[in-house]
Amino acid sequence: MTRMAHNAVKKTLVAVIATSALLASSAFAADKVYRLKLAETWGPNFPVFGDATKNMAKMAEEMSNGRLQIRIDSANKHKAPLGVFDMVKSGQYDMGHSGSYYWKGKVPNTLYFTSMPFGMLPAEQYAWFYYGGGMELMNKVYNPHNLMSFPGGNTEFQMGGWFQKEINSVDDLKGLKMRIPGFAGEIMAELGAKPTNIAPGELYTALERRTIDALEWVGPSLDLRMGFHKIAPYYYTGWHEPGSELQFLVNKGVWDKLPADLQEILRISMKTAAYDMYIQAVHESGQNWSLIKTDYPNVKVKNFPPEVMDALRAANDKLLAEHAAQDPLAKEIQKSQADYKKKVRAWTDISTKAYLDNEAE
Amino acid sequence: MTRMAHNAVKKTLVAVIATSALLASSAFAADKVYRLKLAETWGPNFPVFGDATKNMAKMAEEMSNGRLQIRIDSANKHKAPLGVFDMVKSGQYDMGHSGSYYWKGKVPNTLYFTSMPFGMLPAEQYAWFYYGGGMELMNKVYNPHNLMSFPGGNTEFQMGGWFQKEINSVDDLKGLKMRIPGFAGEIMAELGAKPTNIAPGELYTALERRTIDALEWVGPSLDLRMGFHKIAPYYYTGWHEPGSELQFLVNKGVWDKLPADLQEILRISMKTAAYDMYIQAVHESGQNWSLIKTDYPNVKVKNFPPEVMDALRAANDKLLAEHAAQDPLAKEIQKSQADYKKKVRAWTDISTKAYLDNEAE
After folding, report:
1. For B212-270, what is each residue's pLDDT tens digit?
2. How does pLDDT run across A122-131, given as a tens digit for each residue?
């Protein structure tokens, strides 16, 4: 071999090794596995809510061919069901699945992104989120906390709750001990009720032993397995959570480090899991309600009388005005929701409502 | 260089080249671009419907990092708006976006997968598709034709149409010339109306010159730009398409050749684009209805009188029974839809309907 030939071989070898290294690095980049940890507020195998996180993680893994893997820790693992906001903010977890209104004691304006009393129905609210400015307002609230928030699944319409006695007037609410947390609880308190919060595992006993007179939980999709229909005959139609949207939280720094295709896979997996949960909740509600009706035909569905509804509305308006007066962003969000609801509801009334009225004739 | 050293270099070189080739081939496999062609029934830049296909293709491309590229041909390109079924079946196109009920003359049972008169609302119908057996029944109809069918976007509730004169009795329908295609047209014919189909571009003139007395199109989301509210004062609430779902078609052979991760990316892109279109249609309906009301405050929203609704229902039942008697699969689909609707509607009535009734008080 001449020196020239030797040099040529050497150059080729170097070039081949370089190319090889480049290809290897590119192949490794494409194969790099991103492992994210998600903390959910719910216990293990929590129906419907827990299905949403599993569905999301499965879509993300399958669409990314295994490059995006999301481990789900339920509350029994991380022990902090209402610590999800802080754990994702700090980076202890990369993602969370929870309810925005749980953080209202910490960041008051998070209140507005689950469901508001006398607010929008699920499809109306999705339209507000995606086409009416809702997403922008939600992230205006969350981004300063190093968080991104996304719709995380709708529980579907929530019922007004299970009552031991009929409610015929505002007077019947005075002194009424009811498990009803959050903003709706504040409204009930305005009317003289005694709202309390009780851990889910103790609700049945509390209602059975008359420690409380009434409670609201979700709706047929989740109420059936709690058994409330066996011990409280009156099931009131809803007003306080017409379409509660859960939320996915993502740590902003974690999001920024994902390649663009995995960001899109994660975004769409969360969006689709949210929509899917809404539809699953419709299904489970229909399914479970038909079972309650069959097993307990004496369950009585009641509307609160107009006098009570008017008083609830007035208390709601009063409390909202107080929030708006304290905080310009609260005022901006309230106005956006009220304007949007007014517009979309006029349509809902001549379409869905007119149809349901005609069908019920 | 000794011979031994020379051989060692040669061996290394061969090994490096082999490794390099392996890496390159693996990188190329991961980078292989799949280019699919989609034919849609709609014209170019058709609002809402056309947004669904663009949204789907964009998600697929971004989530696959460019490995799945879908070219959309609208009707002005392929010239066969109602030939989508055949073009995807034969493989001339890989995918389609259309409406299932357009194929009822060819495959009668395709009728059931868009929307049925007096049928389910959009969320109820999604629940039937995904959790109540609807997807399985739809593919029982489509698979024998080398096709897979997926929900492709909901138009939202469709209005009953624009009328020159009020309809006060079944007699008012006799001889009424109305643009109302499909199964709903057959029902109207049962009651003595003269249903016709007219190309969209000629609808306004036909209604203005009284060539027809009435027409149905979609709802505010698409009716506004057609201008019907300027020439027909009565806008009737709907009964015949309570939630029309469009469809994506995929050629079965094309689907089978996609790698598993791209199948999942395609499936989720179609599913999400469908949900998104539903929510966009809610938004556009609310938005456009508020504009119609502002510009034309004299538009009168009317319900057909109960007598007319009862007659329409009876004609619908009669025609459905005829279909069921001819075909066991038609009977199976009808029963699945009727049973599901009964169950889910009982829930809708105590939730959404009760809420809307209370809110309207």
Report:
1. 999 999 999 888 889 999 999 999 999 999 999 999 999 999 999 999 999 999 999 99
2. 999 999 999 9
Residue B345 lies in a domain: no
Domain annotation covers residue A196 = yes
**Of the candidates B64, B219, B261, which has its C-beta nearest A62's C-beta?**
B261
Q: Do residue B306 and residue B172 come from a single domain?
A: yes
Residues A42 and A189 in one domain: no
Q: Looking at beta carbons, which residues of chain A come within 8 Å of B356?
A: 348-349, 352-353, 356
For the segment A270-287, what is each residue's pLDDT rounded down to a tens digit? 999 999 999 999 999 999
Going through A57-203 in order, the beta strands assigned E by DSSP cover 68-73, 95-98, 147-154, 161-163, 177-179, 194-196
| Whether residue B147 is found in the same domain as residue B278 | yes
Which residues of chain B neighbour A351 with C-beta distances below 8 Å?
Answer: 156-157, 159, 219, 237-238, 285
ipTM of the assembly? 0.92
Contact between chains at A16 and B20 (C-beta distance less than 8 A):
yes
Q: Could you tell me if B73 and B209 lie in one domain?
A: no
The model's pTM is: 0.92
Same domain, yes or no: B128 and B58:
yes
Are A120 and A269 within one domain? yes
Name the minimum distance, in Å, from the CA of B188 to any CA of chain A: 18
pLDDT at A181: 84
User: Closest partner residue to B127 among A16, A279, A355, by Cβ?
Assistant: A279
Of A238, A282, A358, which has the smallest distance from its Cβ to B239's Cβ? A358
Q: From chain A, pick out residues whose CB is under 8 angstroms from the CB of B360.
A: 349, 353
**Which whole-number Å values give the CA distances from B182 to B108, B110, B296, in the listed order?**
12, 12, 30
Q: Which residues in chain A touch residue B352, judged by CB atoms under 8 angstroms apart?
A: 121, 157, 352, 356
Where in the sequence is the domain holding B125, given as residue range(s)?
33-154+243-283
**Overall number of domains in chain A:** 2
Q: Provide the CATH number for the domain around residue A168.
A: 3.40.190.10
Query: Where a domain ends, among B283, B315, B344?
Result: B283
Looking up tokens 């081949």 gives A16
Closest CB from A63, A260, A280 relative to B268: A63
Residues of A in contact with B309 (CB under 8 A): 358, 361
